[in-house]
Amino acid sequence: MPHIHASGLAIEFPLYHLGARSLKKRILANSPLRLREDEASRIVVQALRGLDFRIGAGERVALIGHNGAGKTTLLRTLAGVYEPVAGRLEVSGSIGALIDPSAGMDPNATGRENIVLRGLFRGLTEAESTGLAEEIGAFSGLAEFLDVPVRTYSAGMSVRLSFATATIMDPEVLLMDEWFMAGDADFMEKARAKLETLVTKADILVLATHDMAIVRQWCSRVIRLEAGTIVADGTVEQVLGPA
Amino acid sequence: MLDGSGLPQAMPATTYIFDAAEPRRRDRALADLDSGLRHWRLPVALAALDIRNRYRGSVLGPFWMTLSTAVMVAGLGLLYSSLFKMSLVEYLPFLAVSLIIWNTINQVVADACTSLTSSEGIIRQLPLPYSVHVLRCVWRNAVIAAHSLPIILVVFAATGVWPGWGGLLAIPGLALLGVNACALALFLGMLCARFRDIPPIVGSVMQLAFFLSPVLWRPELLHGTARAFLPLNPFYVVMETIRGPLVEGGAPAIVWVSAIVYTALAAALAFVFFVRFRGRIAFWV
Questions:
Q1: Which of A14, A76, A89 sits opposite B18 (nearest CB)?
Q2: Other C-beta atoms within 10 Å of B181: how many?
Q3: pLDDT in tens, B138-182
Q4: Tens digits of per-residue pLDDT, A157-189?
Q5: Which of A96, A145, B85, B152 has the most CB atoms at less than 10 Å from its CB?
């Protein structure tokens, strides 16, 4: 069964290229709690500190918290981008990450080429990826612009392409950042319908968001992060109070 | 409606376990290399895209490299053959092969420094094997270098000097160069991601190495002790395993031994470094 188990999970970002020692001392002296000096006397930001949680199949988890609380870092860690410096993480099930819509997009290549590239990133063959182009192109509604370099796209068109390309998957564990709110009204409706199918099909959803309406609509559990630690974990009513 | 149901299972259901107390770094590094090689289509496609982007809008594209190398071979050939008092027929094949191999080495090394930092956007968003970025860098350079091969053929035809069947020994030489390129792209890519002062140092070292290695001058021009130390120069031995079979009727055994030892050392160093610091790359780039 798909599940996520984390115990004592910690991520630290070393701040390289800081330069002189005196500068380092100054930074540490005025530091909020999250900067510390590690054994090799580097300054590190403690992005996530000792997280313990278990997410089972069927759960819809919202990660909430202020900017910089560690939501996206946690998503990236769950996706396998960052290796934890301490603790244990176990993620079972195929992972689909919608963290950055434009990840791996090449602005100089055409929309179609980017779709093929994205397919290859996923481990598909070239033929399978090319087959996807039609499907994705139709969904994005880009029509003839599909054969034009992406750098000439308007912001709305890029979002359409990114969204259509990124959401062509069928994962068991869906990790999602809240970027999907962008896009024009006409496309939003299509996008929302698409996301809903994706979310319904996935066994686990982990969603980082600021929008409490979305949390109440889609999620069954809320984890509130603050300065890299979990400060609240419970059902939507327990954490956010009654609607 | 688009639902991806027609897709083959692109991501087989797996369990990703990471325990900081027991990182199993070697297994992860081996799995990374294995998966990068198995998905070789991805780096090849990325490299093709890189080359197209680099030369977008250019009429000659990568053949500009061919042209500039051809001009350089012609110019240096005329000058240095008279400086070294050699006939053009004798010197030109040597110079053409030398320059093309050296340009390839030089470009691989320069590009190796950015093999990981240039893929920062992908590394921090998608959990791909790092070896994909390394292979992308190596393949990109291999394809660009291949554009210069016609020069060698033209020079061979013009001077009437052909290597014969012994020239096939250049193939293991090329393989050694390929292994070195992969090792360097991995090692320098990581080192330069962590320490941003490395690329200028590498640039200076390569410039020095160009003059200290027998690229323009024949190794026979050295005498005594200097000649004896020549096989210690890694640039010379790797270059000679390709150049020797093509223009000098084969390379000495000591050159092959030295080239193989250096290649093994480079690969071992890169692998050890990769095993130890693989998990840190995402934080470095």
A1: A89
A2: 27
A3: 999 999 999 999 999 999 999 988 888 888 999 999 999 999 999
A4: 888 888 888 887 788 898 988 766 555 667 778
A5: A96
CA distance linking residue B260 with residue A153, whole number of Å: 50
CB pairs under 8 A between A and B: 140
pLDDT, tens only, B23-36: 888 999 999 999 99
Residue type, A92: S
Q: Which of B4, B20, B42 sits opposite A121 (nearest CB)?
A: B42
- Assigned CATH for A3-93+207-240: 3.40.50.300
* Gap between the Cα atoms of A28 and A30, Å rounded: 6
- β-pair partners for A177: A208
Name residue, tokens 């030369």.
B55
Beta partners for residue A86, in sequence order? A10
CA-to-CA distance for B159 and B167, rounded, in angstroms?
Answer: 16
**Domain residues of chain A, as ranges?**
3-93+207-240, 111-202
Minimal C-alpha gap between B149 and chain A (Å): 28
Q: Does B13 touch chain A (CB under 8 A)?
A: yes
Q: Smallest Cα–Cα separation from B43: which of B199, B182, B163, B152?
A: B182
If one counts every other C-beta atom within 10 angstroms of the C-beta of residue A229, the result is 18
